[in-house]
Amino acid sequence: MQGQIVKIVSNLYTVSNEQGRFSCHSRGKFRNDKITPLVGDYVKFDEKECYILEILPRKNSLVRPFVSNVDQGLIVTSVKHPDFSSNLLDKLIVTLEQHQIEPILCFSKWDLLSEEETKEMETICDYYKKIGYPVVKNTELEKIKSLLNGKTTVFTGQTGAGKSSLMNKLDSNLSLETGEISEALGRGKHTTRHVELMEMYGGKVLDTPGFSSLDFQGVEKEEIRDAFIEFQNYPCPFRDCMHQFERECEVKKNVENGNILSSRYENYIKFLNPKR
Ligand SMILES: Nc1nc2c(ncn2[C@@H]2O[C@H](COP(=O)(O)OP(=O)(O)O)[C@@H](O)[C@H]2O)c(=O)[nH]1
Ligand SMILES: [Mg+2]
Ligand SMILES: [Zn+2]
Q1: Ligand 1 pocket residue status of 78, Cβ below 6 Å
Q2: Which of 178, 190, 206, 212 best tests ligand 1's pocket when mutated (most atoms within 8 Å of CB)?
Q3: Contact in structure between 106 and 76 (CB atoms under 8 Å)
Q4: Contact yes or no for 138/76 (Cβ under 8 A)
Q5: Of ligand 1's atoms, which has the minimum distance to the CA of residue 76?
Q6: What is the pLDDT of residue 243?
Q7: How far apart are alpha carbons 15 and 2 in whole angstroms?
Q8: Largest CA distance in the chain
Q9: How many domains does the chain have?
Q10: Mind listing the pLDDT tens digit of every residue in the chain (276 residues)?
Q11: Are residues 177 and 82 in the same domain?
Q12: 264 and 235, same structural domain?
């Protein structure tokens, strides 16, 4: 039988599939092969003896949280308090793209914006929609639920953006601590907690939010470039163009004429040239 590991507590692996949940042990073999089963792993298992037989190839794996086979990342981004940061948003998008995780953009705290600020923010949202990302507000629960269907999702985003609040709203069985103060206090216990994949609206969701920001140490510049997906719509004469110092660059041209959002290009240049 095949299934997905949804929980690991010491040597007990909870494997889930359409037939239900199975508490399995792992064989010593994995330890010898230096393969450590992760939450998120798809496995073949013996449902009678309740042993994991084989870990199927991973699509990806993360270290924060320690999971594999994540399909999509829901990036919760506040439009205010903390103020909207295009830099952080683009950074998280690049990180997800690098891991073959599809970004979903979820903007929170619209209630804190004036009418004028709302319009400005909506223009930015429209841009991300135009280039192909699903964009939702944290109040659009039905839309969010339908996006979770059939996928394994990790929530990510800045501390205070509203991740825990949103997860609590999506699943009333959850009671994650919310608010900046509890967040800070909760951080200590966080490290010892078990990660678990929860069933949610036909999909699976990590019960703990993931990374809130990462740096690009050891990431190839080409990888950063390719993570700005809309640049590919503007092929440059020089095929390996980095869109930085090259002449006749179509990307730079389209930043100037407004087809590419200038903050996207500015962030790209910043990510290519991290401060030393
Ligand atoms: N005004 C407003 N506050 C929100 C919204 N969503 C979350 N918050 C508040 O923002 C604070 C941080 O939320 P929390 O869920 O803990 O953020 P997390 O750090 O991303 O998990 C809490 O005080 C929430 O009540 C929203 O849509 N509007
Ligand atoms: Mg939280
Ligand atoms: Zn170029």
Answers
A1: no
A2: 178
A3: yes
A4: yes
A5: 20
A6: 98
A7: 9
A8: 65
A9: 3
A10: 999 999 999 889 999 999 999 999 987 767 667 788 999 999 999 999 999 999 999 999 988 888 999 999 999 999 999 999 999 999 999 999 999 999 999 999 999 999 999 999 999 999 999 999 999 999 999 999 999 999 999 999 999 999 999 999 999 888 888 886 555 555 444 444 678 999 999 999 998 888 777 778 788 999 999 999 999 999 999 999 999 999 999 999 999 999 999 999 999 999 999 876
A11: yes
A12: yes
State which of 57, 72, 101 marks the end of a domain: 57
If asked whether residues 199 and 241 sit together in one domain, one would say no
Q: Ligand 2 centre and the CA of 165: distance in Å?
A: 7
Q: Scanning the structure block, which residue is given the tokens 């629960």?
A: 141
Residue 28 lies in a domain: yes
CB of 208 shorter than 6 A to ligand 1: no
Q: Are 40 and 176 found together in one domain?
A: no
215 is a domain residue: no
Domain co-membership, 37 together with 121: no
Q: Is 146 touching ligand 1 by the criterion CB < 6 Å?
A: no
Asked whether residue 134 is domain-assigned, the answer is yes
Report how far residue 47's alpha carbon sits from residue 19's, in angstroms, rounded to the nearest whole number. Answer: 10
Q: Give the closest residue to 212 by CA, choosing from 89, 100, 110.
A: 89
CATH, residue 138: 3.40.50.300
- Residue whose structure tokens are 């939450």: 39
Q: How many Å lie between the centroid of ligand 1 and the Cα of residue 218?
A: 33
Q: Which residue range(s) make up the domain with 264?
A: 221-272
Q: Are strands 20-26 and 12-17 parallel, antiparallel or unpaired?
A: antiparallel
- CATH number for 15: 2.40.50.140
264 lines ligand 1 (CB under 6 A): no
